[in-house]
Amino acid sequence: MSGVVPVPPRGIARRIAVFLDFDGTLVEIAPRPDAIVVPLGLSRLLGDLAQATGGATALLSGRPISDLDRWLAPLRLAAAGCHGAELRRRPDGPAEPAAAPCCPDRWLELATRLAARHPGALVERKPFGFALHARACPGALPELRDALAALVAEDRRFRLLHAHMAVEVLPRGVHKGAALAALLDQPPFAGRVPIAIGDDVTDEDALAEARARGGHGYRVGESFRDPGAVRAWLAAVAREAGHAPAA
Ligand SMILES: O=P(O)(O)OC[C@H]1O[C@H](O[C@H]2O[C@H](CO)[C@@H](O)[C@H](O)[C@H]2O)[C@H](O)[C@@H](O)[C@@H]1O
């Protein structure tokens, strides 16, 4: 279910597995992917939450896992990167690539040339594909979308993902719902009630999977208002379990 998220009830951290989107959920959206401001204390908060949940806290992001590690250093969590195209089952484990194809270099070259024609457009390369960002040139988004749609129509192994002011090429079958399911099938996540939180259409598969598995899928805008409120709720969960400083 979505709707307003309840005040964390007593003992909740012992029962839940937490799956968190990153951009727009834990950190505010910024003009460019590299311009985010990671709040002071976010790493500490997520570390406290991971301890409180017995390690059952994971990130499900469109960013590569290496990028998440860089922003949250020294913290490492279990994580899915590139919308599930990479999976790190344990904080100290490897980032396993999905058995999926990489998009043709030619597509990336075309996207780069296309971006050069639209001041402000930005290509973000990822292990299996790329995102084409248009936050600085919103008027160009329809043209960028159409151009990438024509590319993926050449090869059914790929699909387009429509994200926040961006469009992304990624392998078909990769999505955050499958990543959540894979983590939830193994310790320390297995047997816990999944709570997934996300802000974008790219999170909907994970929210649906959490609900289908007897848990909750919360949209930031509907249930929390903004990332600050998400962080406050997560801190309350950790605090209730004695794993975070008093508010
Ligand atoms: O699944 P997420 O963790 O939310 O990642 C989704 C994408 O986030 C980043 O792009 C988005 O956030 C940028 C910074 O706020 C913003 O400038 C951009 O417009 C958004 O699309 C990231 O760059 C992508 O790789 C992620 O897929």
Automatic annotation (TrEMBL):
Its EC number is 3.1.3.12. PANTHER family: TREHALOSE 6-PHOSPHATE PHOSPHATASE (PTHR43768:SF3). This is Trehalose 6-phosphate phosphatase. Removes the phosphate from trehalose 6-phosphate to produce free trehalose. It comes from Elioraea tepida. Keywords: Hydrolase, Magnesium, Metal-binding. Pfam families: Trehalose_PPase. GO terms for molecular function: metal ion binding; trehalose-phosphatase activity. Belongs to the trehalose phosphatase family. It is an enzyme of class 3 (hydrolase). Pathway: Glycan biosynthesis; trehalose biosynthesis. InterPro entries: OTSB-like, Trehalose_PPase.
